[in-house]
Structures are given as structure tokens and as C-alpha cells.
Design a protein that fits this description.
Strand 4 and strand 5 form a beta hairpin. The protein has a five-stranded parallel sheet, with helices on both faces. It has a two-stranded antiparallel ribbon with strand order 4-5. By secondary structure, the protein is of the alpha/beta class. It is built from four helices and seven strands; from the N terminus they run E-H-E-H-E-E-E-H-E-E-H. The protein is globular. Helix 2 runs parallel beside helix 3.
Length: about 120
């Protein structure tokens, strides 16, 4: 059984094809998808109101950085995995951010989410 099985995962992704693919991947892994949100505004609404175990966030959504959504999630203590096609150089502090390079497979997504969900200590 997958580590993400039964987890509520917020997906913020503006590319409809990618969002549908990610939703299918997560459902195949047994996760419950929250969203997907295709705008920062929708992402903010879901991030602030829904029960979420972890979030998968596209770094750039319709030419806007995902930072406002990440700030809300960080304030709620919700772990995040950023998805990017730009590499890790876009993160100010690579030690505190978890990311996955686009494109990714279901296996790499599951592995990255498992690392983000792993308890620290």
C-alpha cells in the first residue's frame, strides 16, 4: 500500500492536461485529490479551508508564483512538494523546500510525497 493512500492532497496546477494526469496518478495511489486548482485564487481558497495532509504545488501558475498559497499552507503546518520545470535554482533555500522536477512519473511522485510526509525527528 502506498504511503499516500488515504491522504488528502491539494493539487495546484494550471495546465489542464498535467492536472488530469496528476489527479489520475494520485487516485491510483489511493490518495484523495483536493482540487485541482488552476489559479492562485482557487488554490488560496482551498489551502485556507480544506482538510489537507500534503500539497503538490506547481511553482508558476498562470505566470504567478505559488508563494501566497505556500504561505497559507506553511501557516497551517501542511507539508508541501513543489513541482517545477525550472530546476532547484528557483528556490531561495533549497534545504527547506522539497521539489520534484517536471516531467515526473507516478513512482517518482509517490517517492517524493513519501519523503515529504515522513515524520521528522
Amino acid at each position: 500500500m502506498s504511503v499516500v493512500a488515504g491522504k488528502r492532497i491539494l493539487v495546484v496546477e494550471d495546465e489542464a492536461l498535467i492536472a488530469a494526469m496528476v489527479e489520475d496518478m494520485l487516485k491510483d495511489l489511493g490518495a484523495v485529490v483536493v482540487g485541482p486548482a488552476s489559479t492562485i485564487e482557487k488554490g488560496l481558497a482551498l489551502a485556507g479551508s480544506e482538510a489537507i495532509d500534503v500539497a503538490l504545488l506547481d511553482v508558476n501558475v498562470r505566470d504567478q508564483r505559488i508563494d501566497p498559497v505556500a504561505d497559507v499552507l506553511r501557516g497551517r503546518g501542511i507539508p508541501m512538494l513543489f513541482a517545477t520545470g525550472y530546476g532547484s535554482n528557483i528556490f531561495a533555500d533549497k534545504r527547506t523546500c522539497s521539489w520534484i522536477d517536471k516531467p515526473y512519473t507516478q513512482e517518482t511522485l509517490a517517492s517524493a510525497l513519501a519523503k515529504v510526509l515522513r515524520p521528522t525527528g
